[in-house]
Automatic annotation (TrEMBL):
<dbReference type="InterPro" id="IPR001969">
    <property type="entry name" value="Aspartic_peptidase_AS"/>
</dbReference>
<dbReference type="InterPro" id="IPR011969">
    <property type="entry name" value="Clan_AA_Asp_peptidase_C"/>
</dbReference>
<keyword id="KW-0732">Signal</keyword>
<dbReference type="Pfam" id="PF13975">
    <property type="entry name" value="gag-asp_proteas"/>
</dbReference>
<protein>
    <submittedName>
        <fullName>Retropepsin-like aspartic protease</fullName>
    </submittedName>
</protein>
<feature type="signal peptide">
    <location>
        <begin position="1"/>
        <end position="27"/>
    </location>
</feature>
<dbReference type="InterPro" id="IPR021109">
    <property type="entry name" value="Peptidase_aspartic_dom_sf"/>
</dbReference>
<dbReference type="InterPro" id="IPR034122">
    <property type="entry name" value="Retropepsin-like_bacterial"/>
</dbReference>
């Protein structure tokens, strides 16, 4: 298989140093060909500065502008909703415009991703019903989650098996657990192995405990994942 994604991150399971995302505002195409939206800052705790199709707008929590509703604002992330579909945007995430990363055709067996500048494949999705952002990392053995993101999603990772992982700063403790569900679009897998580690990451790394259940194919800037079983 052609190298499907650059490998910007990692732990002992993928044999590199922890990745720190570039702190650059970014634009995300919403599912269904919706507007490109980026989160560029907050005005207190009740309003966010969003750039919607290139136009900067101040949007209060609970209100809508140009069809984009601001559902919530916390820390350095917002949740927006367009046509009933929700998306998490993070301030200072991966640079550039990324593909919509949603499952195609509503079949429940196929995911189609478009790469952004730099060749990264990212996708909105959810873990145990909690919205998050994924980045495909074919070099990671398992799905990898930062402790801060795991806490936000209320994952009981401390009940998982404790292991030590090797980072650029030395060995650090981590926890291995099984995720009840990992969902992208209308494709959902259950009982997916994951590791929760300290440190800062702007994405959940979609490793091979998820990817190995699919037949992966890349043609130019498009990756397709077809469920094997």
């Amino acid at each position: 298989m052609t190298n499907a994604a650059h490998r910007p991150a990692c732990f002992l399971v993928c044999g590199a140093a922890l990745w720190v995302a570039m702190a650059t505002p970014w634009a995300q195409n919403m599912p269904g060909g919706g507007p490109a939206v980026s989160f560029n800052g907050s005005l207190g705790s009740q309003a966010a500065l969003l750039v919607i199709d290139g136009e900067a707008r101040t949007v209060a929590v609970g209100s809508s502008v140009k069809g984009v509703r601001l559902v919530s604002l916390e820390d350095n992330r917002v949740m927006i909703e367009i046509d009933g579909k929700r998306q998490v945007l993070q301030l200072g995430a991966s640079p550039g415009r990324v593909g919509n990363g949603q499952a195609s055709g509503g079949s429940g067996r196929k995911i189609t991703l478009s790469s952004g500048p730099g060749g990264h494949f990212t996708s909105a999705g959810s873990i145990n019903g909690q919205a998050t952002q994924f980045l495909v990392d074919t070099g990671a053995t398992v799905v990898s989650i930062s402790q801060a993101e795991a806490d936000r999603m209320n994952l009981n990772y401390k009940e998982g098996r404790r292991v030590m992982t090797q980072t650029a700063n030395g060995a650090v403790p981590a926890h291995v657990l099984s995720l009840g569900s990992v969902r992208i679009g209308d494709v959902e897998l259950r009982n997916v192995e994951a590791i929760v580690t300290p440190g800062q990451m702007n994405f959940v790394l979609l490793g091979n405990s998820f990817l190995s259940r699919f037949q992966m194919k890349r043609e130019n800037e498009v990756m397709t994942l077809d469920l094997r079983y």
